[in-house]
Protein: Ethylmalonyl-CoA decarboxylase
Amino acid sequence: MVLSAAGQHLLRVSRPGAWGQHLLRVSRPGAWGQHLLRGIGSVSTTAKGFQEKEIREKLQAFPGGSIDLVKQESGIAVLTVNNPARMNAFSGSMMVELEERVSQLEEWTEGKGLIVQGAAGTFCSGSDLNAVRAISNPQDGMKMCMFMQNVLTRLLRLPLLSVALVEGSALGGGAELTTACDFRLMVPGGMIRFVHKHMGLVPGWGGAARLVRIVGSQNALKMLGGALKVDPEMGLQIGLADGVLEGSLDGSGANALLEAEQWLGCYTTGPASVIRAIKNVVVSGRELPLEVALRTERDVFGTVWGGPANLQALASKAKHK
Ligand SMILES: CCCC(=O)SCCNC(=O)CCNC(=O)[C@H](O)C(C)(C)COP(=O)(O)OP(=O)(O)OC[C@H]1O[C@@H](n2cnc3c(N)ncnc32)[C@H](O)[C@@H]1OP(=O)(O)O
Structure:
């Protein structure tokens, strides 16, 4: 780690062979705090110096599937990774669409919750291997990685309580996507598997960093090193899964979605302003140094203190037995 004159950390990523050393410039942690303080819930990229327009154009050259978003009256939105012919693998255009959907969710001020699911009874089999083969050179791979890291970081920081509904398999980048949600609910027969090792890779969409925070470094090492198949039972045991649902009665996925909505509803009941504030204080507590997190918490507190929900609760003389 080198601290440049501009105060930016340069993370030196080396790889032996043709392309030698690359410098991935990331903004210093203090700048994250500034982002969070300025506009919690609309945090933008932590990566500098990558040409988003250029990578979008590149990714658009690999079309297929879609990322569908339905915002419901209940304040819970459903995001569906939809490419069933390829087990919901992410084509390039789906990566771009995911960024657009995240932008829409950042603008959705009435939202409280989000369920991320795969179409047709399976979650997501990671990157579309056809696109991966076409961009297997290091420069393009690095750009795709930065693009997806940025999108999934923004997804996790949305001021919505988010759940990955894991039916079927979540493989590779699909496993990484589950870690970009606050919670994971698994359906019997479901599996989360970081298969990267078998692809000669490590996670690159931020999945390893998030996994360590969810299950701890020991379990993360075992999951990545062994490319372990994490079923619902193991998921609960290591804290990767937050619940196991009954699942589809007819194979349509409808029942699992309904169950996930009910599960999430326990945490999203109440005014959007309060639910969003809860998510924001937790994000800052999770990601920021304590002093900055405390300042952020104070700022968020100021947005709800004396607000309609607070005044109504005071007037009702509520008892919390
Ligand atoms: C930083 C990101 C790292 C990554 O995500 S790398 C990608 C990691 N993912 C993989 O390697 C998944 C490879 N696929 C598999 O293991 C199996 O296809 C899988 C998902 C277990 C399903 O197995 P089966 O149920 O036997 O079905 P199948 O193999 O016949 O697949 C059905 C069709 O889906 C396709 N498919 C599945 N995963 C894909 C992918 N990631 N990219 C592109 N195409 C994919 C598969 O080729 C097959 O297509 P087709 O019917 O032969 O035309």
